[in-house]
Structures are given as C-alpha cells and as structure tokens.
Design a protein that fits this description.
Chain lengths: 249, 272, 306
C-alpha cells in the first residue's frame, strides 16, 4: 500500500503547502499538459527538474521516492511494451520518463493540498458547494469505514469464516459476511449524519456563508505570472523548433 | 494441557506502536476473569492474540497446549469465542436462524447438530420467537443478545467478551450476569473486558489490570480493586458499590458476605 | 449561577441571525410538550403516547427509561426532526419558546434547541474541528467575523482550543464529544438536549463530560435535558427526573423522589446504588440483619462524607 504514500496529504508548512490550491491545480495541469504533448528530451528534462523542485521544497522527497519504487513495476511494463511494439528504445525510454513526470506532478499536488483545500478549489472552478462538501465528507469518513471493515473482518474470522478458499465463486461469497455489515452500517451512518445536518440548519438558506475564503497571496500571484510565462516560453520554443523545421525542409 | 497460557507476550503493530510489552498469565477452565484498564492499555490487542487474529511479535500464546502461531484462526475459534464490542454491527444474514448458524456452518458441524445448537442457544437467550425474523428488525437489546448468542452457539470452551454492558439496559445486564455465572459453573472460562466495575464484581473472581501494555496486577478481584494506586493508574472510577465493599472488607467482613451484599444492592434491593 | 453577561450573547445572537427567521417570545416557557403522541410510519404501536412535559429555562432534567420506551423519539420531537424528517402520525404539540415544531423547520428551531446524538463520530463532517464548529454558523448565514467569534467562544467553553486544526478521526471519544458540543454551541441554542451522551465514553471521560454539562447549565444558563441509562453520573446535578415506559410518562418530579419511586414500583431502571441502599432490608434475598445494619452504617458514612 505504499504506492499511495506518495499521494497522501501530510500537514506541513512549506511554501508549496501554503500555495493557493487553485494555483497549484493550474500549475499541475500545465505541467501535465506540456509533458504529455512532447517527446523532446530537453523539454521533458526541464519539466522534471521543476517537479523535483516542488517535491524537495515541500519536504516530500522520501514519500515520493517510496511510491516511485513501488511504481517502478509500471515503468518497466511501459518500457518493455513500447520496445515490444517496435517504437524503438529511445521512445520507450521517453514514454517511461513521461510516466514518471506525470506521477510526480500528481504526487506533489496531492501531497501538499489538504482535502479541504481541494474541496475549496473545486468550488472555485465552479463545482457546486454541496458537491465539494460531499467530497470532503467522504474523505473524512474513509478512515472510519476502513476501520469498520477491519473490525468486521476480525469478527467474522473469529466466527470461523475462511477467506483462503478454493474457487472464485466461493471466495466472493465468503466476502459477503464482511461486505454486507459494512454496507449496512454505512447506510445507517448516513442517516445519522443526515439528522445531524438537519439539526445544524443545513439547507436553511440557498447560499451559506463561506467562513474561510481562498485569497491569493503575493507568492501565488507571482507563480501565476511565472506559469503564464512558462506557457509562453514552451509555446515559442515549440513553435521555434517548428519554424526551424519548416525552414529546413 | 488445559487452559490458556500467555507467556512473555509482546506485540508491536506494523506502524511501530508497542501495544503489549511482555505479558504473562495463565487461565484455567471454569474461571471468570475481568480485564480492566484504560483505553489504549492493550486490552483489545490481548484479546485478538487469544484466538490467533494477531500473532505475538515475541512470546507465545497456547490454547489447550496448541501454540496460536501454528494454527489458523478458524481452528482456534472453535475453542475460543470472542464477542467484540459493537458485535451487533456484524449481522448480515436474512434470518436470526442463519445468523446463529453461521459459525457452526463455517466450522463444519452437521445440519442436525446445527439445528440443535441454534435452537438451544436461542432458548437460553430468550430469542427463539425471533428465529425467522430479520436480525436488522430487532430492537437494540435483542440485537445485543443475538450478538452474544452468535458466539456462544458453538459452545466454545473459552469465552471472551469485550465491553458487554455498553448500551445494555437494566434487565439484560442481569440476564448477562446470570448467564455468565451459569456457563462458568458448567466448566467454561469467561473473560470479560470491561470498564464497568460493578459488572466485574458481579461476574468475576479474578481481575487482571493492564496499563500501557504492561500487566499491573493479577489476583483475586477484591484484592486488586482494593489497591488505591491501581485504581488511579487503571483509570477506573470507584463505584459506590465498590466503596461499600472495600469498607466492609476493611472492617473484617468475609468475602462471601460482601459478595452477597453486592448482589443484593444490584438486584435484590427493591427491584427485580 | 448564570451571570447576565453570559445570557446576553444568546439573545444578541438570535437577533444577529440573518433574516427575521425568529420571532422573539421571551415570555414563553422553554419547552411545552402537550399531549404528544407519535407512531412511526409502518408501526402499529405508538412510540409516544399522550406525553405531557413542560420545562422552564435553566432547568436540568434527566430522562430515563428502559430501551424502547420512546426516549429518542421524544428528543427528535423536541428539535423538529419529528415531524419534519421522520414519517409517521403526530398528535398533540411541541412548543419551543412558543414556536410550534409543526410550523417551524428544524433549521429555525436549531437556534433555540440543539441536540447532541449518541455517536459523536457521525456529527463531525469536516476535516478539522474548527470547520465543524463553524459549520452550523455558516448555515445560518452569519458574517465571517461573527462566525470567528462564535467559533473561538465555543472552543473555549469546551476547552478544546488546541485541537482546532485536528481532523475528527484523530480525536479520542471524549474529545470528539466536546467537538460535537462545540459545533452545536456555535449556533447558540439556549436549550441543550443530550441523547445518552456517555455511551461511547470511558468512565473518566464520562465524569469530565458531566462536569462540562453541569457548567453549561450553571454558568451559561443553558436549559439541559439529558437522556441517560447511567443515572449515577447525573442524579447529583439534575433536579428533576422524568421516567418513560412504553411511550408514556410514568413519573415526573424531584430526582430522588422519582428514582426511589422506581424502586418501590419495581421499574426496570438503573437506580443508583446510593439510593438503593435504603431499601436493602426489603430485598428478596435474605441478608443477615447484622449485615443490613452494617451496610446502612457504612453507606451513611460514605454519603455523609460528600
């Protein structure tokens, strides 16, 4: 399960963590888009360096390396499959590099953005507040449900349930005594949550106050400008290359 | 070699937390033991070690001579039945009958045997009229009874119950005490993990206190609960019953007299 | 002792709530339940049957009864969940400070009466305590400044300031309980209702909790209603007890009298041992007379020490 370690939020106070989540979202998206749309090794190297900058600045190097070592299997699969499909060793390597860049971008984003901030940035891009609230609430209850799953698992095993059985169908059936109680309990929980929401006046007014607003700080604005510059530089580099290619043919 | 033997057991969770730091004690047949201690003391970890759900990081647990490391949980469960906290949340079957039959079916009993076992336990717990009903339609108290019945149904020799009195109302508390006394008299061993001091006094002769992964004291319940510093460390609250009991003992009353007083106070005096 | 300063914010805030959602009726009694009956949809037997209870502001009332006696149903009726969220037939009326619960939504009632459910885990939905505390206030459309001040106030009263950024999952049961209370306090209701609040707490946390509730009643002047099975925790602080059985009120009055009445009437109630001791000679199991006297003497001594 340590694959997920490189994507799990940890509360720190680095400049990356403190960035406005909308800016981070935009940056990640830009890096993703630019890495996916190129095979130029110089560009890819450049993008990777920037990702490493974010990763080290947010003190997430170890977490990232750990999940990378788990993902190395995938990298190998990509490398081999590309070679097998005959696109050549060089492009196989480049595909793998792209994969690493993409996962790194996603990694530092999730490592430095709390689910709360995530919810707020979702609202900022236009998703209704109810949905982002449902989103953060789901995240909040994930560990609770996981724990419940474990305790029901223990309880049923203590009643003689064996999960190491032969036969696909039997294996699935044997999971029902674990899945059903968890399911039922989750539904019951949601009724209790609904009651609690009611008594806290949820839905009394169409628009609730936003106690915490996202505000762009100077660093956010600076990075936003840098992001625009980056896009500009990338485009002109590619067009420049393109122009060069056209000139030469 | 009968009995449960916990020998120098240590347990550390994968995340590094040392839950048990070297516990040793023995349990014989026909014993009633209360395990007391604050939250986080390692009580739940200890319970799980007793039926093999967890294997000790060092040391050993043997059930009737069998080391828990050598046998799967499903086999150990035949002898050691554990009723976990919130066991009412483990229901999944369509009928109370199926819920009760679940464990015996898993353990390979014959259909006829299972039928007898289910009917017998349902009668003992006063839920036979519910056998064809859906477990989810039962009331809170009935669910609690069903959850304990679901473990006693296969007649395990050692019964461990985690926090049996949480949410249990007055009538069923008495039912539970009576039932525990009865099965201990029949030769079973019952281990109760609880914060309910009165319940411990009513059901158990022996008391083991855990704190911070270590065993603080193991002895006759009156001795252990008379230890003031222990009560403090184990984060227990002295109930009025306990205070009366201790004062009586300190004035020379015999243990059996004091037990009688405790029984009367809890149930004899006035209400049924 | 409730100081006027502590009372004033409750009134001020009612006015500060947006819109004229509430009409102030200070002359009304806090809670008036008149001939209330309720049967859940699909059930034959009524959960509550002709219940009559009135509670004045500042009272501390203990409600108990065997499981299935209608306690939770009564609590739901006090906050408007019945009839607005639960299907069924309701007869009679419930008025909170004069507001008829049939005519006012649960949201409107939430600024007068707050309900703490049994399991604190399911009352905290955010990823930090302070967000949960702010939640209700946000729903009431209060200004961010007002919300900040209420959040600080609620965290102070419940003593959990230092946990304000902690996610609820990482809190112990007792602290979760406090966070849930704080999240209700931020709406500044003057009536607080607790449904078996110590179910999920260990004995120490339960004691601390009782202290908190007592403070809310004596220092803040909150009207407190507690439904409990563990009566020994509360019977020293509550002045009044109401016993429900099979949906009906079978006793309502001074705590000690009512509980002793339970002993006489042999009701299946967890009467605290401190009170039962008096009836020790009246037991079915014969205790030797000298033991009876000894126990009486010992308990008198122990109780006298209070």
């Amino acid at each position: 399960m340590s694959i997920f370690e490189g994507f799990k939020f940890r509360r720190r106070s680095t400049w990356v963590h403190n960035l406005d989540p909308r800016v981070k979202l935009a940056l990640s998206f830009i890096f993703l888009a630019s890495s996916v749309s190129t095979f130029d090794p110089m560009e890819l190297a450049f993008i990777m360096v920037i990702q490493l900058l974010f990763i080290t600045s947010s003190k997430s190097l170890r977490a990232w390396l750990r999940s990378l070592s788990q993902l190395s299997l995938f990298v190998l699969i990509i490398l081999i499959s590309q070679i097998v499909f005959g696109t050549g060793v060089i492009s196989a390597i480049l595909y793998s590099c792209r994969f690493v860049i993409i996962t790194s971008t996603v990694s530092w984003f999730f490592l430095t953005t709390s689910p709360d901030d995530l919810g707020r940035s979702l609202e900022a891009i236009g998703i209704p507040r109810d949905f982002s609230f449902a989103f953060t609430m789901s995240i909040r209850f994930i560990p609770v449900i996981a724990e419940e799953f474990n305790s029901i698992f223990d309880a049923q095993r203590s009643r003689g349930l064996e999960l190491d059985v032969k036969g696909f169908r039997r294996r699935v059936m044997n999971f029902l005594p674990i899945l059903i109680p968890v399911f039922v309990e989750t539904i019951r929980r949601s009724y209790e949550i609904a009651d609690s929401l009611e008594t806290k006046a949820y839905g009394a007014y169409p628009k609730r106050t936003r106690w915490k607003r996202l505000e762009l700080k100077p660093l956010d604005k600076a990075l936003a400008i840098l992001a625009v510059l980056y896009v500009f530089v990338v485009l002109s580099y590619r067009l420049g290359l393109l122009a060069g290619l056209i000139r030469n043919t | 070699m009968e009995g449960i033997s916990v020998s120098k057991v240590e347990y550390t969770y994968p995340n590094g937390m040392r839950a048990l730091k070297g516990i040793s004690f023995d349990v014989r047949r026909s014993e009633a033991i209360a395990i007391l201690g604050p939250n986080g003391a390692g009580k739940t970890t200890l319970i799980k070690l007793m039926n093999g759900l967890l294997k000790p990081t060092s040391g050993s647990v043997t059930i009737d001579g069998v080391d828990t490391k050598t046998v799967p949980v499903s086999k150990l469960a035949r002898k050691v039945g554990i009723v976990f906290q919130n066991a009412e949340k483990q229901f999944f079957a369509e009928t109370v009958y199926d819920e009760l039959a679940f464990a015996p079916r898993n353990m390979g009993f014959q259909q006829e045997q299972i039928d007898n076992m289910v009917k017998h336990i349902a009668h003992m717990f006063g839920i036979e009229q519910y056998l064809q009903r859906n477990p989810f339609s039962l009331s809170g108290g009935e669910k609690k009874r069903l959850s304990i019945a679901s473990v006693l149904v296969w007649d395990p020799t050692y019964v461990i119950i985690d926090e049996p009195t949480v949410g249990l109302d007055f009538r069923y508390r008495r039912l539970l005490v009576d039932m525990i006394r009865r099965i201990v008299a029949e030769g079973k061993t019952v281990i109760v993990v609880t914060h309910d001091v009165d319940f411990a006094l009513l059901t158990s002769q022996r008391c083991i206190t855990l704190c911070d992964g270590t065993l603080l004291r193991d002895g006759p319940i009156f001795d252990v609960l008379s230890d003031e510093s222990l009560i403090e460390k184990a984060s227990l609250v002295q109930t009025f019953t306990l205070k009366i009991a201790k004062t009586l003992l300190s004035r020379g009353s015999r243990t059996d007299e004091v037990m009688e007083v405790i029984n009367v106070l809890n149930w004899g005096a006035g209400n049924t | 002792m409730s100081s006027p300063d502590n009372r004033a914010p409750i009134v001020k805030v009612l006015r500060g709530a947006c819109g004229d959602l509430l009409k102030q009726t200070p002359m009304e009694r806090a809670i008036v339940v008149k001939d209330l009956s309720f049967t859940y949809a699909g059930e034959q037997v009524p959960a509550l049957s002709h219940v009559n209870i009135s509670v004045d502001e500042g009272e501390f009332v203990l409600i108990t009864g065997p499981s299935g006696s209608g306690k939770s149903t009564l609590l739901r009726a006090l906050v408007g969940l019945i009839p607005h969220s639960y299907q069924g037939t309701m007869e009679g009326e419930v008025k909170i400070f004069g507001m008829d619960t049939k005519e006012h939504s649960t949201a409107e009632l939430s600024t007068r009466v707050g309900l703490l459910f049994q399991n604190p885990e399911n009352q905290l939905f955010s990823l930090s305590v302070e967000d949960d505390v702010a939640f209700g206030a946000e729903n009431l459309c209060l200004s961010p400044e007002e919300i900040t001040s209420r959040v600080n106030w609620a965290l102070d009263i419940t003593g959990i300031q230092k946990y304000r950024h902690t996610p609820p999952y990482e809190l112990s049961g007792g602290l979760q309980q406090r966070a849930a209370i704080a999240s209700i306090l931020s709406m500044k209701p003057s009536i607080l209702v607790f449904d078996e609040p110590t179910s999920f707490l260990d004995p120490r946390s339960a004691q601390n909790f009782v202290m908190l509730v007592r403070d809310l009643n004596t220092r803040l002047g909150a009207t407190v209603i507690v439904v409990e099975q563990k009566l020994e925790l509360f019977f020293e602080f509550a002045k009044r007890a109401v016993i429900l059985e099979n949906g009906k009120v079978v006793a309502d009055g001074d705590v000690k009298e009512v509980l002793e009445g339970c002993i006489e009437k042999r009701l299946p109630i967890n009467v605290p041992i401190e009170l039962k001791v008096r009836y020790i000679s009246r037991s079915e199991r014969a205790l030797h007379p000298h033991m009876v006297d000894l126990v009486r003497e010992v308990s008198a001594q122990l109780l006298g020490g209070h």
